[in-house]
TrEMBL record:
Protein name: Glycosyl transferase
Residue intervals of the Glycosyltransferase subfamily 4-like N-terminal domain: 57-201
Domain of life: Bacteria
Species of the source: Plantactinospora mayteni
Pfam family membership, one: Glyco_trans_1_4
Entry's Gene Ontology molecular function annotations: transferase activity
This protein's UniProt keywords: Glycosyltransferase, Transferase
Length: 389
């Protein structure tokens, strides 16, 4: 199996975390015997561009001529069975789909965000869920609200790009939806059911789950949409010490909020940013992991990490979280789902604490069944093989 994997790395960290996930997927494909040729670009390269190249940047989301030339050379040299596209913006452009098709190569795209419709890709604006551009031929609200990089001009360009490339996206041979929520988004966009496959990301197996620790763990980016404010509001509705410890790990604009809570209450501990070993230690120390975003988070990797460690998840019923914890899994939920409301979250905390030991085996079993690299890589290879028939 010959595969070209195309991806534009973002300059800034992204909610879906795809920069590291794409690298891991390439490693897993190669381990399974696929011949993978990366076609990767990074937005960091822009700083090194010549003045002439920078002058062409405004049109690159619509049509990036250098990328098309380089992809054509790669296809001619490697004769791939499939092009697997992740993020095309801004240096690849969705035009790579047309370039691949011109050479007779089918295209698979993994959808990491909502950018078929939403210029920011998030369905989130001004601290709330926003879907104002759904169903519009041109995303005028995105322009008005400067949704792309805080610029009206760049937002106008992105909204135009999405309108121009609507036929391009509808020509993709197979879409990989990371969750059932993304599959619903694609169907709403007009993609036929038979061109959508639900296949999540995988993370490496950390090994057998250790015995449960105590209390609750929140880890990830400390930003409004990730729900740390919602969590602290819910936590304060219980007496100090009633639920065991709450540990908060991460960094971001709401770090002062977490630090203040730790100073205020003896049952809140702020761990700061953690490396991989630190995350593993924090998971061992906890009984329940909290994933409480207030937006339609596509696929928060923290949930998969929790399941891999055998920790059940208490999460908000938004975005990809219901899929991740197994809302449709006949084997049972690997956690609990609540509305993004502090009262509902506060009411669920004692129940989650009491039932953690019962639900923990379901968490590890769901990881092994759904998110293990062996399972996910086989799914991906089956998607590729289906396009060769």
């Amino acid at each position: 199996m010959q595969v070209i994997v195309a991806h534009n790395r973002y300059r800034e960290a992204q909610p879906s975390g795809e920069n590291t996930i794409v690298d891991q997927e390439i490693i897993q494909l190669r381990a399974a015997g696929a011949a993978v040729q990366p076609f990767l670009r990074s937005s960091d390269e822009i700083a090194e561009f010549s003045p002439a190249a920078k002058a062409l940047l405004p049109i690159s989301p619509i049509y990036a001529p250098k990328a098309q030339q380089e992809l054509s050379r790669l296809i001619t040299e490697h004769r791939p069975d499939v092009l697997h596209l992740h993020n095309p913006y801004p240096l690849l452009s969705p035009w790579v789909v047309r370039t691949a098709h011109k050479h007779g190569v089918p295209v698979v795209q993994t959808v990491h965000n909502y950018r078929q419709v939403c210029s920011s890709g998030l369905y989130f604006r001004d601290g709330r869920i926003c879907q104002d551009c759904r169903g519009r031929a041109l995303g005028v609200p995105a322009i008005v609200h400067r949704c792309y990089r805080g610029s009206r001009a760049q937002s106008a360009l992105m909204a135009t790009t999405l309108a121009v490339h609507r036929p391009t996206w509808r020509s993709v041979d197979r879409y990989i939806a990371l969750t059932s929520g993304i599959a619903a988004h694609l169907r709403d966009y007009g993609i036929p059911e038979d061109r959508i496959v639900v296949k999540p990301n995988a993370i490496p197996d950390p090994g057998a789950a250790p015995p449960l620790g105590q209390g609750f763990l929140f880890f990830g980016r400390l930003s409004p949409e990730k729900g740390v404010g919602l969590l602290l509001d819910a936590w304060r509705r219980h007496p100090v010490g009633a639920l065991g410890p709450l540990r908060i790990a991460g960094d971001g604009e709401l770090r002062p909020l977490a630090e203040a809570a730790a100073a205020e209450r003896a049952d809140v501990e702020f761990l700061g940013p953690l490396d991989r070993a630190g995350v593993a230690a924090a998971l061992r120390a906890t009984a329940v992991v909290l994933a409480v975003p207030t937006w339609h988070d596509v696929l928060p990797t923290v949930v998969i990490e929790a399941l891999a460690a055998g920790r059940p998840v208490l999460g908000t019923a938004l975005g990809g979280i219901p899929y991740l914890v197994g809302a449709d899994d006949p084997a049972g939920l690997a956690g609990w789902l609540v509305p993004a409301d502090p009262g509902a979250l506060a009411a669920a905390l004692p129940s989650a604490r009491e039932a953690a030991g019962t639900v923990a085996p379901l968490a590890r079993a769901r990881y092994e069944r759904t998110f293990h690299p062996d399972v996910v890589t086989k799914q991906l290879l089956d998607v590729y093989a289906g396009l060769r028939r």
